[in-house]
Amino acid sequence: MLERYLDECGQALGETFSPSTRDTLLALTRSRLIDKPHGDLSRWMAALQALPPGPAFHQLGADTLTLGESGEHPLEGVKAALEGLIPWRKGPFNFFGVQVETEWRSDWKWQRVAPHLSPLDGRRVLDVGCGSGYHCWRMAAEGASQVVGIDPTILFLVQYLAVKRYAPEVPVWFLPLRMEELPAEQQNFDTVFSMGVLYHRRSPLDHILELKGALFPGGELVLETLVVEGDERTVLMPEDRYAVMRNVFFLPSVAMLTRWLERCGFTDVRCVDEAVTTVEEQHATPWMRFQSLPDFLDPDDPTRTREGYPAPRRAVLLARKP
């Protein structure tokens, strides 16, 4: 199954990348899926294969991505197969009547972002740090001609394949790669999304420049990240952990983030949304059974993290590459 996916992905990516770049990306992908696979990949693939065969009915333009008709297959078997792919972090999904309540209400983020985007119809889109691919499918439903999602987590790739099983003709493709593994300055995409990635990067300016290099001139960047309140001189670097996470490095104010984008050469920079993340938007569920946002906040003061920092606040900024 993975070999077939690689072949189909390679053919599709030939529309976006040069032959040499496509071959490099596919070689990296093959090394992680075939040559030196993750130790749990065979178990995850068995769970995927236990799902009902596709294609099937699919609705990808609604808040809950729906795959298959309810009652078409026994719920117990579908649920057991999907439980083999726990934890589900980005969603929600419904497979043949089985509702997958993910850790994140990713549809809420999409509702905040989508009204401000340049129309995606006919555009080539890159989604950096795409997780399970939830937002990629929403982008395709908006008419994108091709969506490429990248994320190094192999489980997320298998969750993506669970959707692709039922919507094989939809032009969404997933590569288990990091942004820095894409060749620099390729200028392959009309719109580039980076949502929930920047604060994990030790060098945020390098990440912004990588995103810029992936855009055609005139292309649009959609950057969503953790921020703090303050002026153009404000940026928080946690002493150790932030909201229990070790890999959080820089949380700028919106004004500072605007300056970063402008110094990296972007124009028409604007913040279109800023809000504190609520425990209704991010929490543990039967489909993601580990700790989540309620466990990361000070139990006596939910406006602060356990470390005493301001509780997670996220902003969405749009910018244009000249």
Q: Could you say what the CATH architecture is? A: 3-Layer(aba) Sandwich
What is the averaged pLDDT score?
97
- Which percent band covers the strand fraction? 15-25%
What portion of residues is helical? 25-40%
Number of domains: 1
State the order of secondary-structure elements, H for helix, E for strand.
HHHEEHEEEEHEHEHEEHEEEHEHEEE
The number of E-state strands comes to 17
Distance between the termini: 42 Å
Keywords:
10 helices, seven-stranded mixed beta sheet, alpha/beta, Rossmann fold, globular, 322 residues, 24% strand
Strand-helix topology:
Layout: H1 2-13, H2 19-35, H3 41-49, E1 58-59, E2 65-67, H4 75-83, E3 90-91, E4 93-95, E5 98-100, E6 104-105, H5 106-113, E7 124-128, H6 134-141, E8 146-150, H7 154-164, E9 172-175, E10 189-195, H8 204-213, E11 215-227, E12 235-236, E13 251-252, H9 254-263, E14 267-276, H10 293-296, E15 297-298, E16 301-305, E17 313-320
Task: Walk me through what this model shows.
The N and C termini lie far apart (42 Å). The relative contact order is 0.12. By secondary structure, this protein is α/β, with parallel strands linked by helices. The chain is built from 10 helices and 17 strands. Strands 9-8-7-10-11-17-14 form a 7-stranded mixed sheet, with helices on both faces. The protein has a 4-stranded mixed sheet with strand order 1-2-4-5, with helices on one face. Strands 3-6 form a two-stranded parallel ribbon. The chain has a single domain (2-320), classed as Rossmann fold (3-Layer(aba) Sandwich), CATH 3.40.50.150. It is 30% helix and 24% strand. It has helices spanning 2-13, 19-35, 41-49, 75-83, 106-113, 134-141, 154-164, 204-213, 254-263, 293-296; strands spanning 58-59, 65-67, 90-91, 93-95, 98-100, 104-105, 124-128, 146-150, 172-175, 189-195, 215-227, 235-236, 251-252, 267-276, 297-298, 301-305, 313-320. A hairpin with a 2-residue loop joins strand 4 and strand 5.
